[in-house]
Amino acid sequence: MTEAATISEAVSRPAHVTDAVFYDFDLFHDPGLVADPHQRIIDLVENAPPVFWTPRNGGHWMLIGHKANFEAARDFEAFSNEMVPHEQLQAILAQMPPDAPRIPMAYPINLDPPLHGKYRVPLQGVFSPRTINAIKDSIRELAGEIIDQVVPRGQCEFMAEIAEPLPVKVFLNMLGMPLDKLPEYRALVKAHLSEIQPDPSKAMQRLQQVAAIMRDTLIERRDNPQDDIISMLWQVEIDGRPTTLEDLENYGVLLFIAGLDTVMQGMGHGVRRLAEDAALQEELRANPDLISDATEEILRRYTFTVPPRRVARDMEFQGVEMKEGERAMLFLPAADLDPVEYPEPDRLDIRREGKAHIAFNAGPHRCLGSHLARVELNVLYEELLARVPSFRLDAARPPRFHGGHVIGVEELNLVWES
Amino acid sequence: MKVRIDKSACVGNARCWAVSEELFPLDDDGYIQVEEFDVPPGMEELARRGARACPERVIEIVEDDA
Ligand code: HEM
Ligand code: SF4
Questions:
Q1: CA–CA separation, A166 vs A162, rounded Å?
Q2: N or C, fewer C-beta in 10 Å, chain A?
Q3: pLDDT at residue A27 above 70?
Q4: What is the pLDDT of residue A375?
């Protein structure tokens, strides 16, 4: 297939979109983005309008500047997470035949406040820094085991051999799912990943499969609680009522969507940088105490998720006219490279002082799993640097990337002296 | 020096707590527990760093008048 063929068709430009805010960019297939994502993102920061409309993928807004992203993320009345308004969706679901398989809902990520909070608060304690710190050692052990398998070989494909199995194993352990579910679960994660631009009906089926794999364990833990997240979720209340099997399935699906691919891609971007930056590796090997600062700065420099929003009313946003029902992407990777907030944004400076990044977004939907994500990234960098000698990219097999809502690394071949 | 926090805008990501558990205690759900307090002498820099770390920018430092 030629490159031109993979770019989506342009739709025609609505009348309210002026020349000044028109910019042609394909979030999924832009050739520059796919060749070297953050290089292209820096180019957008420098050359594209801070808020623009692109005719690709059905036509949508892109928020590029930090200010635009930060404000939109917090203004949930103007920028809704309900891609279909909640009441409308309930009405559609009510039309389904009663014997149709239930469709799990990833609450609260697709709800607006105040309903959003009712489903978020119960999770907040479960993913609090305290809970996560308690499992740090077990994550370290898993990371060590996985890395040690490749060390003697002198090379690995980092994404498939380390970045994918580690978060999935951590996840199943935390939930308390039996490890014999691992192959099935990994297959679902793979299918989920292979579709950057999912076909909605297939995506729905996959979520039903995720719920189905978990169902036995969910029921078992309801009757025999243990020290795991599923058991904890049976004990929380949603808006004053006990949780049901449907709630537990919804939460399981939410965590599957939000917590696996993301951590994996975070590792991919970070390790790619380390592989290209021998000096950084050396500095961190000599001073492991700096690794947690490096984790933060890598998250800023290589922010990679792009949450979508629905414009909830006709409005003027930062001088730009938007219409109800249009879609807007919070292009967080560009926000964290905005020179207004982060001087010399392309420099990876692990001693950078100043403003916090928004790799986990801001506002009511700010990542619930950020503590877990940080611990996983931190531990991975620590164990990789401790166990694998100076590593670099395999010149014969360069890394490959993809665009989309989670801008990611397809393939990352590393080599080292063994 | 004083710290003033817009508690209602806290989304509970504990970046302040990671800088100083003593200055920025969290409740059981992980949200900030305090709203306004005087910074004990010697902890001014920690308070400033905690404020800078907050991604929501809801922690305000009120410097003493010189
Ligand atoms: C480096 C890894 C990660 C990144 C960059 C990341 C990023 C994000 C972002 C940007 C959002 C906001 C979405 C929006 O505004 O619509 C979000 C939400 C969320 N994340 Fe993460 N995430 C990561 C890891 C995780 C992990 C490990 C978990 C699970 C345990 C998780 C669970 C969630 C949940 C449940 C939400 C929805 C919160 C809500 O709607 O209130 N994330 N994440
Ligand atoms: S860093 Fe800010 S948002 Fe996070 S817990 Fe502290 S006050 Fe709340």
A1: 6
A2: N
A3: yes
A4: 96
Q: What angle do CA A292, A294, A296 make, to 5 degrees?
A: 75
Three-class secondary structure of residue A235 per DSSP = helix
Whether residue B65 is predicted with pLDDT greater than 80 in this model: the reply is no
Q: Which of A353, A366, A371 lies nearest to residue B55, judging by beta carbons?
A: A366
- Please give the share of chain A, as a percent, with pLDDT higher than 90: 80
C-beta separation of A234 from A221 below 8 A: yes
This prediction's pTM:
0.94
Give the model's pLDDT for residue A106: 92
Mutate to test the pocket of ligand 2, among B34, B56, B60 (most ligand atoms within 8 A of CB): B56
> Which residues from A are below 8 Å from B when comparing CB atoms?
74, 121, 124-125, 127-130, 353-358, 360, 362-364, 366-367, 370-371
Residue B52's domain comprises 2-62
Residue A96: the pLDDT is 86
Closest by Cα among A1, A63, A65, A3 to A28: A3
More confident residue, B29 or A87: A87
Q: How far apart are CA B38 and CA A114, in angstroms?
A: 33
The pLDDT tens digits for A3-13 are: 444 788 899 99
CATH of the domain at A235: 1.10.630.10
- Total domain count for chain A? 1
Within a domain: residue A49?
yes
Q: Is A263 exposed, middle or buried (0-12, 13-18, 19+ CB in 10 A)?
A: buried
If you average pLDDT over residues A210-228, what whole number do you get?
Answer: 93
Using the mean position of ligand 2's atoms as its centre, give its distance from the Cα of residue A11 in Å.
42
d(CA A42, CA A45): 5
Report which of residues A196 and A142 the model is more confident about. Answer: A142
CB A65 within 8 A of CB A48: no
Residue A378 domain-assigned?
Answer: yes
Q: State the total domains in chain B.
A: 1
Phi, psi of A75 (to 5 degrees): -95, 75
Q: What are phi and psi of A412, to 5 degrees?
A: -145, 95
Which of A401, A395, A379 lies closest to A146, judged by CA?
A379
**Is residue A1 assigned to a domain?**
no
Express each pLDDT in A393-417 by its tens digit: 999 999 999 999 999 999 999 999 9
What confidence score (pLDDT) does residue B66 get? 55
Q: Quick check: is A13 in a domain?
A: no
Q: How far apart are CA A246 and CA A112, in angstroms?
A: 20
